[in-house]
């Protein structure tokens, strides 16, 4: 009985200790915990063209932002519900109308007014550089002012579009539906340069435009600090996200980046890109194939020559056999005739030999 009572006491103390530890370890105050209890579902949207930071794969959210949302969900217990949109501009409009609670990837410095005054931003969780991409024969560019009068392709609704229009009105903007469309415009000669995030452009150039497009420079005054945007009516959600991000360790972020890079689908490279990237290997393969074809042709010719020689031998032997057999038959016939005939004596007295009767 005493032993059973001791076990109950130890169990009660353990539960009390664990409960106290979990309460003490919770990063959220009472108000935030109450908000989480009253808002178990958070509606969010992503930029469907924000690959590889975020994108849709068969309607499923993929990319870096999905990894961070999953960690926040593990910490808070929030269930994030994806609302699919056509583009970034539509997502911003839905948030301003109260139909969205969260945008997963925004840049505070690049959001145009009045949007930047009507949303709240979380702490940055990812930073990248802004790159300028041109064709191979163009000079390097580190100052957007040098692009004055030139055509620059940028995704429609992208924060870069606002920044360039606001600070560099002399640049002619060509809007595209996707980041790939901006690169296509440069590759096809419809634009002088394209602007975008390094995490997006570098991998795409290597896969699809190797040898055609090159990074001409980076723009230091246009850094891309990626934050989450929250509706102005949900300041508590912004605080919860910030505290959740603050719970992540360096090991956690390393694992997030590893999973992101491991699972990102970079698409199928184009034939032209493969040829440019592996032209040495392809050239060696072509030479090897040519040699194989040459050897095969040589072997085929040798086989035909051998067959022709064999046929000529057979024909020669047949002809020689015929030529020899004909006189030999004549000789044999003569011998047979001689064997059946009476010959005169060998002493030359041929006149003594009886003559046949008439």
UniProtKB/TrEMBL annotation:
Catalytic activity reported: ATP + protein L-histidine = ADP + protein N-phospho-L-histidine
Gene Ontology terms for molecular function: phosphorelay sensor kinase activity
Pfam annotation, one family: HisKA
EC primary class: transferase
Keyword Ribonucleoprotein (UniProt): no
Domain Solute-binding protein family 3/N-terminal: 41-264
Signal peptide: 1-24
Enzyme Commission number: 2.7.13.3
Residue ranges of the TM segments: 278-296
The keyword Iron is assigned to this record: no
Alphabetized UniProt keyword annotations: Membrane, Signal, Transferase, Transmembrane, Transmembrane helix
InterPro entries reported for this sequence: HisK_dim/P_dom (IPR003661), HisK_dim/P_sf (IPR036097), Solute-binding_3/MltF_N (IPR001638)
Protein name stated in the entry: histidine kinase
Source species of the chain: Chromobacterium violaceum
């Amino acid at each position: 009985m005493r032993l059973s009572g001791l076990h109950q006491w130890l169990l009660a103390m353990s539960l009390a200790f664990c409960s106290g530890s979990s309460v003490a370890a919770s990063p959220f105050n009472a108000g935030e915990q109450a908000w989480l209890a009253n808002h178990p579902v958070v509606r969010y949207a992503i930029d469907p063209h924000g690959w590889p930071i975020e994108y849709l794969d068969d309607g499923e959210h993929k990319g870096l932002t999905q990894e961070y949302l999953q960690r926040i969900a593990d910490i808070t217990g929030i269930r994030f519900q994806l609302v699919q949109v056509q583009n970034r501009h539509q997502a911003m409009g839905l948030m301003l109308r109260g139909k969205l609670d969260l945008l997963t990837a925004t840049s505070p410095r690049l959001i145009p007014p009045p949007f930047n005054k009507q949303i709240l931003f979380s702490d940055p969780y990812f930073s990248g550089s802004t790159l300028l991409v041109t064709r191979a024969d163009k000079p390097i560019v580190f100052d957007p002012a040098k692009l004055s009068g030139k055509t620059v392709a940028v995704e429609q609704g992208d924060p870069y579009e606002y920044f360039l229009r606001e600070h560099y009105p002399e640049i002619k903007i060509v809007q595209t539906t996707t980041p790939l469309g901006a690169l296509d415009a440069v590759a096809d000669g419809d634009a002088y340069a394209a602007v975008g995030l390094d995490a997006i452009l570098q991998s795409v150039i290597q896969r699809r435009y190797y040898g055609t497009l090159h990074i001409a420079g980076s723009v230091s005054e246009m850094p891309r600090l990626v934050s989450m945007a929250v509706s102005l009516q949900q300041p508590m959600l912004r605080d919860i996200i910030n505290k959740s991000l603050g719970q992540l360790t360096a090991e956690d972020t390393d694992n997030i980046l590893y999973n992101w890079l491991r699972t990102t689908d970079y698409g199928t490279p184009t034939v032209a890109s493969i040829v440019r990237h592996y032209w040495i290997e392809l050239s060696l393969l072509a030479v090897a194939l040519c040699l194989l074809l040459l050897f095969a042709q040589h072997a085929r010719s040798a086989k035909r020559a051998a067959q022709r020689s064999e046929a000529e031998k057979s024909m020669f032997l047949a002809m020689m056999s015929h030529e020899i057999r004909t006189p030999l038959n004549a000789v044999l016939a003569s011998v047979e005739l001689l064997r059946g005939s009476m010959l005169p004596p060998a002493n030359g007295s041929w006149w003594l030999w009886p003559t046949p009767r008439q």
